[in-house]
Amino acid sequence: MMSTINFQAIREAEGLKEILSDIRINIEQRINLNKYSHQKSVTLNGNKIMRICLLAGLSCPDERTMEELEAVQLSKTSNRIFDSFFTTHNLSTIYSAMFKLRYRKLPIDWDNLNVKSKLFNAEMFRGRQLLLNDTVLDEWLLNTNSFSGSGKAGRIPYLNLNIGTYEDNIPALLNLNGRDITNTQILVAGTTGSGKSNLLAVLLNEIRSLSIESSYPVNFLLFDYKGEFSDPANNAWLNLFEVDRSSILDPISAPLPFNPFKDFVGKAQNEINLYSTELATAICSIDNARMSANMSNRLSEAIINSYKRTQNKAVSFDLILKEYTTQQPERDRDKDDSIKSVLKQLIRTNLFAKEDTVDLIKESFIVKMDGFPKDGPIAKAIVYFIVSKLNTIYEKLPKQAMDDDCVELRHFSIIDEAHYMLGFDNKPLRDLIAVGRNKGLSIILATQNMDSYKSEYFDFYANAQYPLIMKQQSINDGVIKDLFGVSGNEFQEIKQAISSLQKGELIIKNPTAIALGMGKRYKKIKVSHLI
């Protein structure tokens, strides 16, 4: 019996996705008919385009040559074809048989990874050339098959992220959704130039590529403080996350497409009272506004009265300001205090729509944040109210699915420059982390220094599955001791390891060594280069 080819760790050719982009465009133009242009355009994920080209290539009976294989240049960054490419629709045995049929006359070493990778890419290039003929592409698109088997597409995808290599080129894997993983939170600490943005891109690329073709795709919301991911010059990055520019939300260009306030129709008055206190605290915290006890009570009362005006439907900043002014002594109503100043800033910037027109969980978005000062009230308000909205959505979702091996992940929130959101009692962020495991939510918090994660309000390290430590501007001794449980020589060793990290390197806890009380308490990882 013919042995099946092992397709694990197949590498992409250099510039593969760009080379196949013309096929994507041709197919999407045929799918997105002009008369239905008012609908959101359908975009095809990278795996689907590669699969179409591969199958088209393997369908071609032309003679293969070794020269074709030698001409294929593999990716210098070792970008790989994800295992889900082969498990979706359970086609791996068919691929194996077709490869051996087409290359039966050539001396192929089927155990050589580089050779297999070149074969794989050569067939995609062959399929691309074939499909660039409009007649052939139309014939392919019009071809139908009544086979309805879904293979493994209905299973929860196993999100075992390959983010780089340990020493000796051993793959560095982060298991996000195995049944034995206690939570899915990831913390990233790294100074400017440490490779933090590339690490975030690697994490997102792995999460999306492993899940996008399954029945359980993992969507994301990224707060892009530096504007890198939303920069038109970096449009190619979006393909890595299976999104396009329609996913970018720019609050300067248009209000964010949802109402940030809760709807309390049918809810008890006590819920509104509690929410009013939390919201009043947040409005003052995002601008470090000074307020007396009277001002605090006045703002809470204004929020409660606003809900009375709307009959418990979602309120607005304008209505809160109006009710707050009404609560002031008559002689002070024309004067601005710190609370009115914050509310007026939020009204002027017109950050949010009056109604929800998108579902933040069912789609992926990148929020362009570089138009606002990072530590200013507007940037804080955007993150605070989006996180609050995510909480509101998650409260209504059923518990996530699970099978024998994995639990479902629905969504990732990625907050870069997170230290700006950790300096006050950010209840929505704490709530979002608490909800995480039961509802299929994960958070990636990225900041400049490790000590940002331990504040008087919350110990984020204690609630993180994977703290990833990159190059630091300054190293907090207490955080190292708490995080790794070390002292003396072990402490000095870890401190030295952090100090000597180069761009694109990180250290991570070694739970096995910590549990056994022997060996190094950390491992060093060289992160894959992606962007």
Secondary structure topology:
Layout: H1 16-19, H2 21-31, H3 46-59, H4 66-70, H5 84-87, H6 92-102, H7 113-131, H8 134-142, E1 160-165, E2 171-175, E3 186-189, H9 196-211, E4 219-224, H10 235-240, E5 248-249, H11 269-285, H12 293-309, H13 317-327, H14 338-349, E6 365-368, H15 377-395, E7 411-415, H16 427-439, E8 441-447, E9 466-469, H17 477-484, H18 488-499, E10 505-509, H19 511-516, E11 522-527
Parallel strand pairs: 3-8, 3-9, 4-6, 4-7, 5-6, 7-8
Antiparallel strand pairs: 1-2, 1-11, 9-10, 10-11
Helix pairs in contact: 3-7, 11-12, 12-13, 13-14, 15-16
CATH superfamily of the largest domain: P-loop containing nucleotide triphosphate hydrolases
Number of strand segments: 11
Give the terminus-to-terminus CA distance.
Answer: 43 Å
The neighbouring-strand order within the major sheet is 2-1-11-10-9-3-8-7-4-6-5
- What CATH architecture of the largest domain do you see? 3-Layer(aba) Sandwich
Q: Unreliable stretches, pLDDT < 50, 5 or more residues?
A: 145-153
Mean pLDDT level: 84
Structural class: alpha/beta
Identify the overall geometry.
globular
Q: What is the CATH top level name of the largest domain?
A: Alpha Beta
- The number of distinct structural domains comes to 3
Q: Helix fraction?
A: 40-55%
Main sheet makeup: 11 strands, mixed
User: What percentage of amino acids are in beta strands?
Assistant: 5-15%
Radius of gyration: 26 Å
CATH topology of the largest domain: Rossmann fold
